[in-house]
Write a structure and sequence with these properties.
mainly alpha, 6 helices
Length: 115
C-alpha cells in the first residue's frame, strides 16, 4: 500500500512545503546553517532520483557507475539527478575508507618508506 501512495507525494508543489520546512528549521536552530539546505535538498530530490535510478537499472543489469551516464537526455542533463547518482555510487567507497582508514594510511606509509 505504501508503494501506491509514494508517487502521490510528487503532486505536492515544493513551494507548498517551504513554509513548514522554514518553521522546522527555525525551531531546531538550523535556519542559517548549511545543514538545513542539505537536508531540504535530500528530502526533495532523493526520492525522484531513486525512482529514476531504479527504473534505469531494472531494464538492464548495469552497475551504478555505468548507469549514471544513462540519466542524461539527448539535449539536456539534470545535474541534480546525476550528482545524486554519483553520490550514491561513491557512498560505499567513502564508508569503506572511513572504516579502514587507519589500515589504509598505515599501508601507504609502510609502502612509501621501504629500504
Amino acid at each position: 500500500m505504501a508503494e501506491a501512495l509514494f508517487p502521490s507525494g510528487f503532486l505536492i508543489p515544493s513551494f507548498a512545503v517551504l513554509v513548514p520546512v522554514i518553521l522546522m528549521a527555525v525551531r531546531s536552530g538550523l535556519l542559517h546553517n548549511p545543514l538545513s539546505v542539505i537536508l531540504f535538498y535530500l528530502a526533495v530530490r532523493l526520492p525522484l532520483t531513486i525512482i529514476m535510478l531504479a527504473s534505469q537499472l531494472s531494464d538492464k543489469t548495469h552497475t551504478i557507475q555505468v548507469a549514471v551516464p544513462l540519466l542524461k537526455c539527448e539535449h539536456t542533463v539534470d545535474y541534480a539527478q546525476v550528482a545524486a547518482g554519483v553520490l550514491v555510487s561513491m557512498a560505499p567507497v567513502f564508508i569503506g575508507f572511513a572504516i579502514f582508514q587507519e589500515r589504509i594510511i598505515k599501508g601507504m606509509w609502510c609502502g612509501a618508506v621501504k629500504g
